[in-house]
Amino acid sequence: MAGLSIDAKAKVETPSHFQCPVSMEIMSDPVMIQTGHTYDRPSIQRWLEQGHKTCPVTGQRLRHLELTPNFALRTAIQQFATEHGITLSDRQLTSVTEKAVVNSVNGGEPSTSLNEGSNTIGHTVLEGHEEIVWAVEATPSHLFSASADKSIRVWDTATRRCLHVLEEHTRPVLSLAVSHRHGKLFSGSYDCSIRVWDMRTFRRVKALHGHTDAVRSLAVAGDKLFSGSYDATLRAYDINTLKPLKVLEGHTGPVRTLTILGTSLFSGSYDKTVRVWNTETLESVAVLEGHTDAVRALAASPVEDLKYVFSGSDDSRVRVWDASTFQCVRVFEGHEDNVRVLTADSDFLYSGSWDKTIRVWDMRSLECVHVLEGHVEAVLALTVMDGHLISGSYDTTVRFWSTDTFNCVGKYEGHDDAVRVLTSTGEDADCVYSGSYDGSIGFWSKPVPGGNTLANAGSTATRE
């Protein structure tokens, strides 16, 4: 019996309003549907996933399928359970399905845990979202994924369980940002709004309006939130009061990407420029020109004495900007197609392109030192972790590259469509997360030290 032992059930009469009308079991995660009736989340989700679009109790057709947590009832049930020694169900609260992961390094064998004899969970791909995953952000304890299905999912990074589904946006969710200091999660959407979520309760705190087109990028600097939109503007908000501060105007095309270095905010646009704004005064500082096509990617150097910001463009080039003088100090050439993504660690900048390659640029000499080949479609996503560069591609694979040898030391198949986004918690991270066009989320750890590489299977690192 889910949520209640037979002995306890025989001794305690559960109030009828604590029971789910579908399962008739005591509820562990009560949620309300549009009609106002409350159900246990797993039961009502199963009902909806079977194709029903009606309220199980009334038969009334639902205008929308959003599920609203009934926190008051949950608290009452938890108090009742504690008082009577009842253990509530620990079953997964949201619907997810685990997919098979294959490690091509091991000849197509299923992927296993990295460190035998340890508690490390092996590579995992979980289905949950119904449409493309547009953004992922990670903290040490949680992963947040944003999707075209209008929802944000909250995953426990230790158990890899989906804990919450945040469903207030009315159109696809495109961007995410986390402020640890303020305990807030921000999400930007095609519905032109930014939603603010409390990271303790995962309840919506506020909706921020003002943009007239999709909110494509978000960034946090100090006590300020910045948003970049397809309406060609940026907006600044006070995170403490959640009040709008200023509209930053100047771009003549959609704002695609944001990055911050020191007190400077850099915004990349389809208008071919990068603009610089002071994060304290909110004034325009500079316009960086030189690209001949849309700017899709920005990255800031994490090295304190190297004040560089890098911009990647559809013109196939990467430009290096001195963040002190705002002058272009180098143009990286070599890619044969659009530069789609940039990421950096303490030693290198990495650029991923539609030409299927990744180029490795030395952060100090500003020279290309390796070209990583192996993906058979465009490289869409990059991130770094503990001695590795990780790449995701239209070819559906996630590849691990050693930053010592730049050999491909892991090629993982589990997603059924393009790997759109990757994230980690930084260079010291022990896990990487991916989001795919197929709506699935991947959890990846380091390949086994000393394992085979793919150097003889079409994955090579060549020196420039």
UniProtKB/TrEMBL annotation:
E.C. numbers: 2.3.2.27
CDD domains recorded for this chain?
Answer: RING-Ubox_PUB, WD40
Q: Which reaction does it catalyse?
A: S-ubiquitinyl-[E2 ubiquitin-conjugating enzyme]-L-cysteine + [acceptor protein]-L-lysine = [E2 ubiquitin-conjugating enzyme]-L-cysteine + N(6)-ubiquitinyl-[acceptor protein]-L-lysine
For this record, the Gene Ontology CC terms, alphabetical, are: cytoplasm; nucleus
The residues bearing each WD repeat, given as ranges, are 126-165, 166-207, 208-247, 248-287, 288-331, 332-371, 372-411, 412-445
Specify the U-box domain's residue ranges. Answer: 13-87
Please report a single Pfam family linked to this protein.
Answer: U-box
InterPro entries registered for this protein in UniProt? Quinoprotein_ADH-like_sf, RING-Ubox_PUB, Ubox_domain, WD40/YVTN_repeat-like_dom_sf, WD40_PAC1, WD40_repeat_CS, WD40_rpt, Znf_RING/FYVE/PHD
The keyword Transferase appears for this protein: yes
Q: Which PANTHER family match?
A: F-BOX_WD REPEAT-CONTAINING PROTEIN 7 (PTHR19849:SF1), PHOSPHOLIPASE A-2-ACTIVATING PROTEIN (PTHR19849)
Q: Which protein, by its recorded name, is this?
A: RING-type E3 ubiquitin transferase
State the taxonomy lineage: Eukaryota, Viridiplantae, Chlorophyta, Mamiellophyceae, Mamiellales
